[in-house]
Each structure stands twice: as structure tokens, then as C-alpha cells.
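I'll show an entry:

:::
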Amino acid sequence: MIAVALLLVTVLAPAVDASAGVNAFDHRKHLSTLRVAAVYNDKEVQIRFEFPTDQPSWYHQYWVYEDGTWVRCGDASERPDPHGLYEDRISMMLDDGSVPHFANAGGFVTVHPGMRSLDSAASPEEVAEHPYLGGVLGRDDVRKFISPSREGFPGRDSWKRVRSKSRLDALRADGVFLDLWQWRAHRSHPVGYADNGYVLEYRHASEGRSMYTTNWDADAGQPAWMADPENTGHRALRIEKLKAQAYGQDDPYYLTEASAVPFDPERAWRNGDAIPHQLLRKPSGSRGAIQASGGYSEGAWRVSLTRSLDAPNPHDSKSLRPGERYSVAFAVHTRGAGNRFHHVSIPHSLGLGVGADITAQYVESGSLDDAEAEWIELTLFYPGQVTWNWLLSDHPGSYLVETDAMHISIHTIEHLRQSILEHEAEIRAAAETSERERDE
């Protein structure tokens, strides 16, 4: 059985006063609803999403000119960006049953102490000094990983216990990883793609050229590219218009290889001029295997992702087979959110031509885009700081979790939401107590 984590969310929440910024929306206190459907033919599978939101964001980080210096604007590393300059994102994990517990626990199997944005996050210095994460990967943060990539039983220091590279290569060859699809409203959608990646000892990109690259000349300390005025009608955007969400979906709010020219440092730049942080381009290889179509209309993102049934690269992607059932779990980043401030679902089943929670309809002839599909609505919630280590140790049902005797759906969504918020409050209270004791 292949486990697939598909991702899309419908935020049902009252409108937010724009003057307060999109950050006035508290992701922790709301639930979301997702509509998803799937179709396939003999060669491809298509996942469809409908994601209603009254505050869509197709913006994502900009270089802004301030008194002779270009500074980055748009940051969701600690909290949702207050101006919404962080793209909406729909993610999808996919597994062929090789990752233990995913079918019952979903994305929680990828969350561990030490990960970035958690209160327990390892320091950048500590990660950079790690022989594998820092030495081999060149990273200074801990991201999603699965337990088979670590030595020993999951614990608070699991992030440190990375298996040898030869063992990790063997796991990849055996398909022991989660396939990860990420639709990005700014960094992939304008060029017609979703991002392909996978989760093993880290959250990796699949092989091939990315659909975006950082628009920065490190030697000169300035953007490498600017908008071509003959193509876009401007050389730069304005930060005040970006913060006001004034650029429409059909406006050139992004920068592509076709719409860019080399940056002109001699131009009389004005304070508030803004240039996209990323240069978009056509991807290649497995990284560019997922095509995206659709957009925002009538109050909702309506997006379709299409990929071959066969894995574009079996070392970083999973094959999907007609007649098989899969496990799925969902999440979305929206309203300027990044990292853990998103919504996720419990795992569900997906079947290609066979009955499941989500049943992909077979299309014998014609375009997948035109085919009828069966839609399902799912409820998503804030995941808090629940880690796999906690579920296997301190959780009251840890034995049932470890033995796969319990599916997370034993809890109602409202119970999950309340329990997660209480758990996070306990973490914060314990941290405050520890800090007071140190001060004493």
C-alpha cells in the first residue's frame, strides 16, 4: 500500500481587518476545511484542490531599497508575516508503505525535538557543527525527518543520531522515504509547476533544477536581476502596494527569466522600491515532474497538480499504481504563515479506481482536466508542538501508537485541537518554570 499525503485546506474564519495585518489571524485557534479530488488515466494522476480564503497570498519575500541598502522584507520563520508577504502553500507527502506508522499517525512521524520553529529547536551553531547536517549537508537547522534515518529509539536527541551515508543511500534505494509535493503560490505556480521533494534524514528537494533561485549578487550586495520595463512596465514594485496586497494575480508581482534583465546599480533607486527575492525559471529532472494549473478565482484557490503514475526518479519519488489504496494526510500554509504555523489533517485513504476516503476516478479517454471527479471535504487543524518522540513516550496512548493499534481518528478533530493547545501550553509553562529556577 502506498501512503500519500495530499495537502489542501479551506480556511473558514471571519474576515480580518486589513489594517491589523494578516497576522491578526491566529492559526492556533481555527480549524480549516479542505476539498480534494483525484482522477487518473493510464499514464498520469491529477490531484485537484479547492481552497477558499478571503486573504490569498501570491507574494513571497522582496528586496526593498532603504537608504542605499537592499533589505529583505517578508519573514515567517518565527510567526506569520504581518503583511502577508509569504506565499500560500499546499503540500503533499507520498509513501508506498515503507515508512512505519505513517498510515496511522500521518505527518506527526516527521516531527521531532530539535526541529526549527519548535521551542526545543537546536541552535544554528550546534547544527552547523554536526558532522552530517552541518558538515555534509551544509545546514544550520533541523527539518522534517523520519525515524528510520536515525539510530536507536526516537528520543529528544534523535536529530543528532543520523545514520551513516551508506545506510541512508540504502534506505533511499529501498524506497524508505516520504515523497513530498509542494505547490507554492509564488515560487512555483506562476511558471506552471509544483515543487517535488522527499523526506528521509532531512527535507530534501528532488534531483534536477529548481523552479526558483535566490535573486542576489552576494559579491555586490544587491539583487542580481530586476524587472524588464519593456516586458513588465516597471523595473521594481512598490513595497507599500505589496503590503496593501494591491498587485493582482495577473500583475507581474514575480520575476522570471523571461521578464528579467541584469540589475542596474546606477539607476536612481527610491526608498520603497521592491524586487522579488526569487527568480523563477523552468525546472528540470524529477524536481520539475509535477505540473500545476488553475489559480485563484471566486474566493478560492482552484489548483490541479498532474504527475506521471511512474516515479520520475525512484530514489526521490514514489510510483502510483491503479487498483491500489493509499494513505493520505494534508496541510496548508496560508495568511503569511511558515514553519509550524499551518494546518494539517489526520491521515486518510486514497484509492486509484478502488473505494477509499478519496477515490481517484479512472479517465478512459480525453483530458484529465475535463474529467468528472468525486470531491471530499476534510477538516484540518494546527499541529502545535506534538513530536513523534512525545507520542511514543509521554502520550497516554503511547503503546497503542507504537504498536499501530490506534489510528489518530480515534480522536475527534475538536479533541485533537484542544489537546494540542493544552500540550503546547504545558511546554511553555515548563520552559518558564525552568527559566525562573535558573534565574534563582
